[in-house]
Design a protein that fits this description.
By secondary structure, the chain is mainly alpha-helical. It is 68% helix and 0% strand. The protein has helices spanning 25-32, 36-46, 48-65, 67-74, 82-85, 99-102, 119-155, 157-172, 175-190, 199-229, 233-240, 245-253, 258-282, 293-300, 309-336. The radius of gyration is 30 Å and the shape is elongated. The N and C termini lie far apart (79 Å).
């Protein structure tokens, strides 16, 4: 016997088992945190060395920015020769009369031999000068390297060949010898031989010359990256849809190049700090009486056998800053590119 056929389908009972739960706020937050930027920030925060290095670097920049305020609160400046106001600060041989370079509650880091300038204010203003030149040179170098590298890699052909040869020449050129030999020539183009060279001209010349020899390395790196990226599917798809070269560069290529750009910049700045200090030490960069790390080390080298204090503070501070910034650059690289983890 045939079973009776139901006249209508039985209604489906709605239970908790057939309803898909809506995502909770915590799940949405977890998905948000998976963006590359958030993942890099999370990895960086877990790197204790990177966090400590970042704090040290920030401290140096805060001191550089606030140097005039700190000097005003301290009650001294880096240009006054305090020994001329109080001859008792120096002994008969023109060295600080007090112990440890004349360190006291009045002069925290002591005074400079012969001239009697305050070491503390000279140091914080020296940090301001050195970091200002290094940061400006890094920004200019990065911009030039990015423009040249992306242009050469994207256009290819004769443009790429010409830029490649120029980069090879610059990377093989003895830049230090060029600085020593031609910086006086550069100054002579703008200032008469019997006139003093303005500090602003020295600083601008240093920034331009450091940038002229610094852009080649980052341009070479980005050129290689672009040569690989321009053959990828997303770039070809953008070309097929009729995207202009400008849109391809800014919307397709540049977002994929931020990681090497940031990494190269963080490694370039401490190199410029040491280069600027080296040129000041050799007398072809910033010179006395302008406060500068290199100027302090150059002056301190004249007295270190009798009093090492004046040379000690700029030397230690520069080593700490360069080491911290290099470690910060390594940590940034590891955070942005986990495959490169040490």
């Amino acid at each position: 016997m045939t079973p009776p056929t139901p006249s209508a389908a039985a209604p489906l009972e709605v239970t908790d088992d057939n309803v898909e739960p809506s995502p909770s706020p915590s799940t949405l937050k977890g998905n948000e945190s998976r963006s590359p930027g958030r993942l890099a920030w999370t990895r960086f925060k877990r790197d204790r060395t990177g966090v400590i290095s970042a704090c040290i670097v920030i401290f140096f920049f805060v001191v550089a920015i606030c140097a005039p305020l700190i000097a005003k609160l301290y009650g001294k400046n880096p240009y006054t020769t305090y020994a001329s106001q109080d001859p008792s600060l120096l002994d008969p041989f023109a060295y600080p009369a007090g112990a440890n370079g004349g360190m006291s509650s009045q002069f925290w880091f002591g005074i400079e031999p012969q001239l009697g300038r305050d070491v503390f204010t000279f140091l914080i203003y020296g940090i301001r000068t050195s970091l200002g030149i290094a940061v400006a040179a890094t920004l200019l170098t990065t911009v030039a390297g990015v423009v040249v590298g992306i242009t050469a890699g994207y256009l290819g052909g004769k443009t790429d060949y010409l830029v490649g040869r120029i980069i090879d020449i610059l990377l093989s050129f003895p830049s230090t010898l060029f600085f020593i030999a031609f910086m006086p020539v550069i100054y002579g183009l703008f200032v008469a031989p019997d006139e003093n060279i303005p500090t602003s001209l020295r600083a601008i010349s240093l920034i331009l010359v450091l940038s002229a020899f610094g852009w080649a390395s980052i341009a070479r790196l980005l050129r290689g990256q672009v040569l690989g990226l321009r053959e990828r599917e997303f770039v070809e798809a953008a070309k097929v849809t009729g995207a202009s070269p400008r849109r391809i560069v800014f919307k397709e290529l540049l977002p994929n190049l931020w990681t090497p750009i940031i990494i190269q910049s963080t490694l370039m700045l401490p190199a410029f700090v040491t280069a600027e200090a080296g040129l000041a030490f050799l007398g072809v960069g910033i010179i006395d009486p302008t406060p500068d790390w290199g100027v302090m080390i150059q002056r301190g080298a004249q007295f270190y056998t009798q009093d090492i204090t004046f040379m000690l503070f700029p030397g230690i501070s520069m080593v700490i800053f360069v080491l911290a910034f290099n470690l910060l650059g390594d940590s940034v690289r590891d955070a942005l590119d986990p495959k490169s983890k040490r």
